[in-house]
Design brief:
Blueprint lengths: L3 E4 L6 H12 L2 E4 H11 L2 H12 L5 H12 L5 E4 L5 H8 L6 E6 L2 H9 L1 E4 L5 E3 L18 E2 L6 H15 L1 H8 L3 E5 L4 H11 L3
Parallel strand pairs: 1-3, 1-4, 2-3, 4-8
Antiparallel strand pairs: 5-6, 5-7
Helix pairs in contact: 1-9, 2-3, 4-5, 6-7
The protein binds adenosine-5'-diphosphate and zinc ion.
């Protein structure tokens, strides 16, 4: 069982691809974005601390995210990390408790991610993800799975998307070179439909 990191800008499709790949390859899917949004939704101490940070499109402090991941991944095999690490400090922290077998970089340009995030909608009850352009719900504004209301994530508002992209360029882009130097990086063209991208990720992972 491999330990794998999915890297890429916001809107690269990390969540969608990770869910598919994890299911097919039998890996544990850990999304720090989902874990943090769950803390916010449940109104925990951590959730209260990070809510404003996330709404502004800034990064949650490294030690908080590291603790969240460590709790679930320490010493395990077969983990697929989505949205983590996002800084060099997080990568160094991760290396202390989880050996990596591969880092898959989902490459996609800025114009495409801005377009995708602007048209993303999520179900307010079950969390299912839609895209008004490419994966619209059957009935406008309603979740196909549970009938819940579809909403825009607060951090998908246009001003916040621009900020998230800047933060990605500044803090997370350096990870691409970091993992390339370690010989772990595999690049996949993510400007295609999710099935094609997921198939390529599975191919580069050899599963
Ligand atoms: P995206 O990759 O589309 O930006 P995520 O769901 O991965 O969306 O993350 C949403 C937000 O959660 C981020 O903008 C950030 O505030 C917070 N977050 C998620 N993962 C991390 C992380 N590894 N380090 C710091 N903050 C994080
Ligand atoms: Zn739903």
């Amino acid at each position: 069982m491999k330990n794998v990191v999915l890297l890429g800008p916001p809107g690269a499709g990390k969540g969608t691809i990770a869910a598919r790949v994890a299911q097919k390859a039998g890996l544990l899917h850990l999304s720090t974005g989902d874990l943090l949004r769950d803390e916010v939704a449940r109104g925990t101490e951590l959730g209260k601390r990070v809510q404003g940070i996330m709404a502004r499109g800034e990064l949650v402090p490294d030690e908080l995210v590291l603790a969240l991941v460590r709790e679930r991944a320490d010493g395990r095999r077969g983990v697929l990390l989505d949205g983590f690490p996002r800084t060099l400090a997080q990568a160094e922290g991760l290396a202390q408790f989880l050996p990596l077998d591969a880092v898959v970089y989902l490459a996609v340009g800025k114009d495409e991610v801005v377009r995708r995030l602007g048209s993303r909608r999520v179900c307010s009850s079950c969390g299912a993800v839609y895209n008004l352009l490419t994966q619209p719900p059957k009935e406008s504004g309603r979740c196909d799975r549970c009938g819940g209301a579809l909403v825009q994530r607060p951090d998908d508002a246009p001003e916040v998307v621009a900020r998230r992209y800047e933060v990605y360029e500044r803090d997370s882009r350096p990870l691409v070179d970091h993992y390339r130097r370690l010989g772990l990086l595999r690049t996949v063209d993510a400007a295609r439909d999710p099935e094609a991208v997921a198939a390529d990720v599975l191919k580069v992972l050899g599963s």
